[in-house]
């Protein structure tokens, strides 16, 4: 199956290339980059020299659509929607990594992102979290791949909301992310000289991933859920570590909380529920499509702590998109994704 | 004034040396190290070559007491108490950086740390947080310098508890610390190869600094306060970033929360209340004795977010100990501590 | 084909596991670790949870030999030789990652490493650098995989020595390595707190990899070659960057030097000769089995600069061992090794 | 004495601020920044909040000259010369941190940097390496502070050239630098996501600091010296580690080489000659004005290895400029510079 990658020179796009080069059933036929159109991939990115014999195309979906069966669109939000529309019109299946079709409520989208260029596709996109929407993803033609932070928060939280075990008010999500989550932005704060040995919170209770988390939390709870979402920037390239703080609606021990997670994810290859006493680390998931989750009940203080780790570029972006593409195409879900994290 | 540093070859001890070498009124007369007794300081630590012409002594307080007027004890907990007892007996003023005299309730101490060797000094130590206990520190003879995490949590939280503006139940403290906070421990998890590009939560709701935070929070609130304290390990050498999540007892805006902090710390040199829109960073305080604090109200979700940053080895240990020593000796409080963080 | 990994809990051993888990024709049947015997792999190393369903065995080659067709021995030098001897006796093919059989001159071995336990196998091992010894590696039963530094130095240097284009005297090799090259040693200098933002030269002109480089350089030159080898420790986990400084025997331009490298490695998949103007980076090879090489002639000063980069755990250890194993077993040489470096 | 800092928002300028804030005899009266003119320093750089109560001025030397007795010009090359000319015209003493007056041969300057705007001041500037030019620096009115790489190479090399102990041909200098040496450049290669866990050589035998090294090496040798200079980029913020490879003109042991360095620098506070067996590290000098040097003779191969470490922003820029200013003003040379490196 021929696949195109739009926005292939950004971090998520490059990670798609790295992973797709290992995929036995997907063949990269087109890669686009506005800034590098015409340049051979291996010249622009020496890591890819000898691995991929293609040049970047300009992102012209009309012209390129016939050269692919499925497209990954790793473009900035707002830039993605028109490309997606053209590709869908041409019959190309699309796994969109941008934010353009993640939110199902157009008003919420526009409140956080501004006007939407192709609202007609709202409601036609399946939310690409296979652990929650596997059935709808099978054979889907348009998938909106989740944000990195939402994936890390929703996976540990949803089982508790579904079971009614935690209050829907007052949920706090404290996430810590490596800098690749921001893309290849030439911002002074992302320079090595300013980020090494540094860390900070940013967009406190004001990050665009909050409404996405709330959307999925509300579905799970069956009623509106609001969260206080506080992202932090870490001096790492990859990885998201998330702590969700919530209050049980009834006494819950650590053992019971873990049992609930184990039950929820017993059949999920990419979600690993850690045994009691262990906490998720960035290192254990780096480069892999796993999301590790854990739970600790602080019964003394009436607080339940849910923890997760994932690689923002894999399970938080490119890997999850391929997991979705496997479902869209009817391939085994883990195809091309059986990677083990570096150690060390 | 002659000062001795017990445990001078640990990270807090070395930081004391770095800072004391800049202090115009304190002269290092004795440095001890069990492992390096007899070795010249500059030979053991090349960074100190040409800066300090002393050799390490074995930690024998009886023999050494007459060579100092004030001692900093940077020893492991339990090892500190007997040294402190001997020094006090000999009339030496002591700023203790260990945990041995931080908790005022012996039962709480023993529940978290085990039996205490010199409980007779319980209640004779002043808690060395000058912003809260300045009056008692003036002329004190025994000071228990706070833990690094408690300093980072107590400074932003106390004004709100004193004002009755936040609920005393359900407080969550999510802290992120550089690895020097653990001391020079030969633990595989602290190796560069395993910590770089890594991060994790540890001792979730089970860290010894929790009761210390609760002690000071309870004093501020005038009633028992419990907290859920979740420390994280960051891939940085220095620095603690803390987020305190609590629920206002009445509607509180960001502006009002910041005004309360500004009022509380208007006369405090080492606590900088950041303007609205700015969040504390590790870089801005690294190497300095500052603690930067901020507040953001998430009114939509009924959560108040308090943030702080400090250098765990300075305001969280050695710098704060010198700040206390300045008060004990009647020197200006900022003497020797006017350092600016590296940038970059 | 069933393979065993002796010393599977060290860094080279773990990297073997990561890579072997992707290999379509090699199946891990045994993993040993003295310290972790009996422990399930995924419990000891969370990154491997869900990936490898084995427990560590104690390193008892007599007992284990029948459970494998080929063994990778990733043991410390001196510890490897007896294990290799037992395995060979039992008819198991061995790719040895230790230093025990790299040197062909026993006197040189013993001068640098001390007495050798099984000198009878000296001369029976093929030096496992496929780019130089491919023919002998095909079907070999005992392979001594090269050291990481030697691989990085020998690959760019050998073509020039073979062509007689550089003087054999006065060669200087300045290498910079990430800390994983030292293994999981609990040395204070390898702690994150002491290595981050740090770097230094060590074992200057006194490192055990020098005689190994000299052995292969001498073969290429057809006469004895001595080198000044200066390794440095970098604050990275992985990677070796090497600069070889030598003097041309006749005027050599950058273009001619690059042409010589291109000619030498035209058919080598894992050696990438960079175009003029580009220099090798650690990032471009991290996690992959590539060695990138470049050459710059400083004609003004009569010096030829040869540069290389590789991942010390892949092309410098585990990846190269698998490349050898592929040749030993008659598999395609790149089998299981087509990995692309992370970007970012 | 009132001092102005031109280009105060760059890395060298900010480091000047950090160090000047500790100087008992120099008072910062003016700070300029084109990009931040009008902005309070503490608002632009939170690390300086509470430390320096000034706003940035636009860099208008005519207008500002009367407000300072001495100026530090930390501007890009070419931009510095006109500012220096105006300041000198107005009678302000100048320590120039740019490259504009380091080279004494105008033809060499123009070959590497292009046309020079104020060649009339060529020959009026003293090269600001106090260890070599102390006498001329006393009372000087215009000082050209050395580049960071040249300082690191010249200090260990000059004693050997002066003594005629090393050949003047074939000298190789392999330097490794933290990224702050490049200034706050918004270059993708300097992003944390692309530099962490990375390293590379750049501008091989083609860096502008080569002619500066050659100038001072030639003075020391009494005849023209050429060097092959190969700089590398390290994943650290600060620090330069340099290895100089040269060939002795007669047999030289490590002991004799170290004795020569000790003799040369016996009276130099800021140059520390390490004892045999120790090598310079970045950590030992970070934040301090020290340059650590060492020598190892590889007698077997006829090569002498000279090593050095320094902090590129201190001894390599701002600290050395203050050391010069102390000499220009007749203050003790170490005034304000007695800082100890962080450990850890």
Describe, in plain words, how this protein is organized in 3D.
- The structure is a homotetramer of 344-residue chains.
- The radius of gyration of chain A is 20 Å and the shape is globular.
- The first copy, chain A, starts with a strand and ends in a 15-residue tail after the last helix.
- The relative contact order of chain A is 0.15.
- With 344 residues, chain A is an alpha/beta fold.
- In chain A, β1 (2-6), α1 and β2 (27-31) form a beta-alpha-beta unit.
- In chain A, the strands form two sheets. Chain A has a seven-stranded mixed β-sheet with strand order 8-9-7-10-13-12-11.
- The longest helix of chain A has 16 residues, at 314-329.
- Chain A has helices spanning 11-20, 41-44, 61-64, 80-89, 106-113, 130-137, 148-162, 192-195, 209-221, 254-265, 314-329, and strands at 2-6, 27-31, 70-73, 93-96, 126-127, 142-144, 171-177, 200-201, 227-233, 240-246, 271-273, 291-298, 303-310.
- The first copy, chain A, folds into two domains: 2-124, 3-Layer(aba) Sandwich (Rossmann fold); 148-312, 2-Layer Sandwich (Dihydrodipicolinate Reductase, domain 2).
- In chain A, α1 (11-20) packs across α11 and α7 packs parallel to α9.
- Chain A is built from eleven helices and 13 strands.
- Chains A and B meet through β7, β8, β9, β10 and β13 of A and β7, β8, β9, β10 and β13 of B.
């Amino acid at each position: 199956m021929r696949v195109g990658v739009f926005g292939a020179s950004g971090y998520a796009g490059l990670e798609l290339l790295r992973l797709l080069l290992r995929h036995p059933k997907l063949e990269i036929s087109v890669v686009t980059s506005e800034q590098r159109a015409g340049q051979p991939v291996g010249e622009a990115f020496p890591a890819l020299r000898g691995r991929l014999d293609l040049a970047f195309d300009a992102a012209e979906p009309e012209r390129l659509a016939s050269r692919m069966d499925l497209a990954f669109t790793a473009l900035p939000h707002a830039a993605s929607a028109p490309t997606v529309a053209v590709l869908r019109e041409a019959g190309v299946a699309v796994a969109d990594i941008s934010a353009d079709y993640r939110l199902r409520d157009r008003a919420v989208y526009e409140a956080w992102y501004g006007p939407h260029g192709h609202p007609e596709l709202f409601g036609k996109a399946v939310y690409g979290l296979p652990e929650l929407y596997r059935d709808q993803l099978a054979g889907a033609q348009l998938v909106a791949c989740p944000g990195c932070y939402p994936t890390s928060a929703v996976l540990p939280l949803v089982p508790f909301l579904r079971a009614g075990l935690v209050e829907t008010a007052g949920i706090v999500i404290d996430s810590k992310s490596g800098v690749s989550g921001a893309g290849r932005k030439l911002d002074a704060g992302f320079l090595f000289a300013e980020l090494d040995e540094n860390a900070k919170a940013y967009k406190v209770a004001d990050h665009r991933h909050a409404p996405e988390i709330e959307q999925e939390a509300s579905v799970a709870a069956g009623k509106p859920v609001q969260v206080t979402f506080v992202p932090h920037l870490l001096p790492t390239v990859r990885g998201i570590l998330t702590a969700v703080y919530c209050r049980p609606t009834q006494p819950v021990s650590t053992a019971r909380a873990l049992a609930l997670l184990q039950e929820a994810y017993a059949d999920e290859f990419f979600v690993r529920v850690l045994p009691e006493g262990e906490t998720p680390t960035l290192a254990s998931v780096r480069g892999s499509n796993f999301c590790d989750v854990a739970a600790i009940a602080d019964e003394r203080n009436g607080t339940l702590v849910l923890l997760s780790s994932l690689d923002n570029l894999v399970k938080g972006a490119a890997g999850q998109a391929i997991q979705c593409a496997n479902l869209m195409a009817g391939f085994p879900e883990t195809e091309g994704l059986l990677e083990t994290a570096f150690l060390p």
